[in-house]
Amino acid sequence: MCLVVVVVYSLTLLLPLGQASLPLVINTWPFKDATGAAWGALQSGGSVLDAVEKGCARCEADQCDGSVGYGGSPDENGETTLDAMIMNGDTMEVGAVADLRRIKNAVGVARAVMERTTHTMLVGESASLFAENMGFTAEDLTTNKSLNIFSEWLKGNCQPNYRKNVFPDPSAHCGPYKPRATVRDKQMRRHANVNSHDTIGMIAIDQAGHVAAGTSTNGLTHKVPGRVGDSPIAGAGAYADSSVGGAAATGDGDVMMRFLPSYLAVEQMRAGADPSTACKTAISRIKRHYADFFGAIICANTTGHYGAACNKVAGFSTFFYMVSNPETDKPALLSVDCF
Ligand code: GLY
Question: Residue 199 catalytic?
Fold first, then answer.
């Protein structure tokens, strides 16, 4: 997955880290075509919301590295479900969908939630029905690839899975599971890692300093059906405030959503921190409690400065992200060393 991709892309680094300019598009991982789609939207007169929607939608259509869009991360039933959000930093409106089924364009549905309801988030079957009513096409999100991932998992006694304190023993057996009579406090934690998922998170800022941010993901492979990660949660997956800037996160959402890292990073920037320092503070806060969590965050402010940070764990020592601004000829790949 992305670790293979980054070795190839790392030969094409274009931009000195942190060179500020507006407008700006920044997104997690080497999802270059998504950056290009967002940048193209801004260049053709679109708003920052258009940019974030088009950028994330491009990843959904292309499936990026398999962690975004249809045909990836099948849950315990073999089904792919999607989480996405979009946030308008001018109005502080948010639209989000979680556990969305049978609709490919999750970020588009998230924008429809924001613009065609007074709600913030819709989930599950009801979100899919809303999407159909809004004109989105319902289709099967399963592919041969996701079917294969699912059947291999079944063959391997459903390992890994994310159950605890149940029987039969989830570390050796498939379900159905029932609660075990006693809860063992010191049971091994089984959280997501660099091999099980990531997300597109994107921030767009225009010349006038309008900020939007958004995310899209198919979540965690082999998740318990109904599981929702950090990506559609405002302040966790992403946050935007046009008086400050924006942030977007990627990684183990089950852990990260407990700390609202995107909100924390934006608040750090509001208090005067530069984007790199703000990103580091958000990662440090999580590290204090979960030293081995897998995760990264991107941050940008309304002067066009940006940065990123990530938690160093086995197999993840460098985080790659994309930037487009007037200084880059085309979407530029950047990296940051995890700490
Ligand atoms: N960060 C994506 C997820 O945990 O679902």
Answer: yes
Asked whether 100 and 65 are in contact (CB, 8 A), the reply is: no
- Parse the chain into domains and list their residue ranges: 2-9+19-142+197-337, 144-185
CB of 250 sitting under 6 A from ligand 1: yes
Q: Which of 279, 257, 256 is nearest to 266 (CA)?
A: 279
Place of tokens 């020592």: 317
Say how many Å lie between the CA of residue 45 and the centre of ligand 1: 31
Tens-place pLDDT, residues 121-132: 999 999 999 999
Provide the token pair at 5.
């991709």
Query: Measured from the CB, is residue 65 less than 6 Å from ligand 1?
Result: no
Q: How far apart are CA 41 and CA 36, in angstroms?
A: 9
2-9+19-142+197-337: CATH number: 3.60.20.30
Decide if pLDDT at 187 tops 70: no
H-helix or E-strand containing 306?
A: strand 306-310
> What predicted TM-score, i.e. pTM, was given to this entire model?
0.93
249 alpha carbon – ligand 1 mean position (Å): 9
